Structures are given as structure tokens and as C-alpha cells.
Amino acid sequence: MAETAPSSWFDIAIAALKRNEVKLITFVPDRVLAPLIAGLQADPYFDVISTTREEEAVGIVSGAWMGGVRGAVLMQTSGFATLPNVIASLLVPYQIPAILIVSERGTLGEFNIGQALVCRTMRPVLESLATEHHTVTRIDEFDFILDRSIRQAVKTQSPATLILSPLLTGGKTLPTAERAR
Amino acid sequence: MTKTITIGNVSVEIMNRFDLSKRLVALLKNDEAIVAGIGNTNFDLWAAGRRPQNFYMLGSMGLAFPIALGVAIAQPRRHVIGLEGDGSLLMQLGALATIAAHKAQNLTMIVWDNQSYQITGSQPTATAGAADIVDVARACGIKQSLWARSPQDFEAQVKKAIAGGEKTLIACKTDDAPPQGQTHRDPVLIRENFMQGLGVRSARTFAPE
After folding, report:
1. Which of A97, A169, B9, B39 has CB 3.0 to 4.6 Å from B119, enough for a Cys bridge?
2. Of residues A68, A71, A94, nearest to B75 (C-beta)
3. Chain A residues in contact with B70 (beta carbon < 8 A)
4. pLDDT band for position B9 (50/70/90)?
5. CA A84 to CA A76: how far, in whole Å?
6. DSSP string over B104-147
């Protein structure tokens, strides 16, 4: 029987992570990423660790990669904003291929000004460190982008960041009752 | 003359970081990994004798224990030791809660608590006042958390922690002596050496046939 293609963005992510042997997942919770986190936790292939801060999450996957296990970090935009120090002083100079998966807040219907402003710092940080990053907007491109980005990160020993746009995930919006106000 | 400090109702010696680093390395018989935090912590580990299973951080202050946890998860049969200073640990106290919650037990955390940011001019840290690293670790859920009372007690606690099958935090009050060396500062060499020490990479890649 032919395998059915995964239909949701989070099932695509789980399949691509598994295919590339990314077994260790560290995260700081996020509403948009909740179905991805739940799916990973339900799958015994993955060791999924909830951390108190994104830096810590990056530290854990860095140690695991040096010990022979690949890892990815899940976070939202404001969590990414806590990471320039560890990207610049650990991932890039030590050549550690951490996969950073960021749920993008702050654009396309954001209701919190703080999120909107912090979002504008993310791509300039990634550009200034000359690290590979892609923004995923279309579900039909997601597997290709994630799969190839993981492979390139591993082979070139560089971190890679995947920014998941609200166009892919639906993002986070205000409840209807509040929108009317 | 040995100086002591009383913590709660326990008297502990103020020890020397380089001396304890040497004692630690001398106790390691099974290629245990060491992940050493930024600054004087890894300078004294470097001075205590090079080994391929040592990882030296040049930045990412506060992440020695998270990195050590990652190594411990990836290599469950190897014991992993995190070395961290009080200032660094205070920056990332949440990591203790994360480590306590994880099932990995092959991890020992050692804290050199000199009660100061020694490398930046010896400004006092919070542990010079009311903060107690061992109490913090216990409250985060690391049940085996204790003060080493003397260099001999430190050695005994390290041996017990490595043999024990339960993750342990050992804190040591240390003096203000400067470090005995400076780490080599090539991150790629440090990382590659460490991965060879862990058996992830071959040391023979560039060796003659």
C-alpha cells in the first residue's frame, strides 16, 4: 500500500525530522507550535525536552550533536530574540548544525506591538551572522525546504533557521469576540 | 592555614579551583566527558591537563550544564561532568529545573563558588549574600545536591556521584586565586578534539595510511 502523504504542516515537519534522524527536540512552548509539540511527544522516536529558556534549549542540542545525536529547537519569535549570543559564540564558531524552528509572531495580523517589533529584529540578526534561513509560507514547499535545510546544515556544519510564517501555520489571532472591539 | 565558611550549620573549607580541577581529572578512569564553563573554570581545567574528552566554552555563558545534559543524553553509557562557576550558573538557574526533570542520570554538576565575578574584577555575586546554590538545586528537584567540605570530601563525593547512578550537584566554596593557564582559543579544534574524544569522529581522518 502506498504511503499517504502527510496533510498538515506539523505532520510534514515530524516526517522530515524523522527521515533526517533528528531525534532530540528541545522547546519553549508556543500556541502555534502546540500540535507539532504534541505530535513529537506522542512519537517514541523523539526525546522531547521542555526547557525554561531558548538558550538552554540550544545548549542541550549542541551537546547532543557533539555526542552523536541530531537535534532541533522549537520556539516563537520572541524566544529567538534571546539567542544572538549563543548563535554567535557557540553555534557559528564551533560549527554546530542546530536546527532552529521558529513560529513567526509579529506579522500578518499581530495584535501585540511588542511581538511586532521583536519580529523585525530576527532576520537582521540571522543576516548579520551569515547563517542560512528560510521563511516557509506554503505547505507544498515545506517538506523540501525543511528536508534540504537539515541536510545542508549537517553537511556544512552550520545552524539553519526555519521561520514558519502565519501563511503556513495560520498564526495566532485574537478570539473573534475581542476582534470586534 | 585553612579557611572555612559556615553554611547553615555545616563548616566547609574554602578550597582552590586549580587544585580541585587536578583532583577531579585524576579521578576519571573511564573517559568521562567534562564540559567546562566560560572563563576561569575552563582555564583551570585546561591547566589541569589536556584530555580529548574535555570541552571548553569560549562564550555562551551559563550553558555548561545544558551542553553537558545534551552529551549525557546522546551517550547514556558515558558519565558526563559539567563544570560551572557561580556567576555563570546564576545566569541560567532554570537549567537546573530542566535537568532535574530529565530521566538522564549519568550527569554530575560541579560548581566552583568563589562568590564573585572574578574575571571581570571580582564584583560579588548573589552567593556572596543570601543565595545558596545547593539550596537552589535541591529546590529545583536535584535531590543529590551538597557542599564539598574539604578536598578529600570533594574527591569522595565525585567518586560516589560517578558510581552512583543518580545525577548529583557538588558545590565547592573556592578562593580568589587566579587561574593557572589560558585555554587554547580555536573553537573548531576544541569541538573536533572533543568529538574524537567521545568516539563520534575518527582521530585517524588525517593520519597517514
Report:
1. B39
2. A68
3. 24, 59-67, 69, 71
4. confident
5. 14
6. ---EEEEEEE-SEEGGGT-EE-GGGTT--HHHHHHHHT--EEEE
- d(CA A83, CA B106) in angstroms, rounded, equals 28
pLDDT, tens only, A48-102: 999 999 999 999 999 999 999 999 999 999 999 999 999 999 999 999 999 999 9
Q: What CATH number should be reported for the domain whose range is B14-197? A: 3.40.50.970
Mutate to test the interface with A, among B35, B55, B67 (most CBs of A within 10 A): B67
What is the maximum span of chain A, computed from C-alpha positions, in angstroms?
A: 53
- Kindly determine whether residue A63 and residue B188, on different chains, have CB atoms separated by under 8 Å: no
Mean pLDDT of A30-37: 97
Q: What residues contact residue A113 under an 8 Å CB cut-off, 6+ apart? A: none
Beta carbons of B38 and B179 less than 8 angstroms apart: no
Q: Does A181 score more than 60 pLDDT?
A: yes
Boundaries of every domain in chain A: 9-109+120-164
Mutate to test the interface with B, among A70, A92, A94 (most CBs of B within 10 A): A94
| Cα–Cα distance for residue pair B178/A59, rounded to 1 Å | 27
Q: State the residue for C-alpha cell 557533539.
A: A66
Residue B195 Cα distances to A62, A92, B93, B190, angstroms? 12, 16, 27, 9
Give, in words, the CATH class of A9-109+120-164: alpha beta
List pLDDT tens digits, range A140-156.
999 999 999 999 999 99
Domain boundaries, given as residue ranges, for chain B = 14-197
- Put simply, the answer to whether A71 touches B59 (Cβ < 8 Å) is no
Question: Is residue B5 scored above 60 in pLDDT?
Answer: yes
Contacts of B188 in chain A (CB under 8 A): 93-95
Q: Could you read off the pLDDT of A152-180 as tens digits, one per residue? A: 999 999 999 999 999 999 998 887 777 76
The pLDDT > 90 percentage for chain B reads 93
Contact flag A64-B73 (C-beta cutoff 8 Å): yes
ipTM > 0.95 for the complex: yes
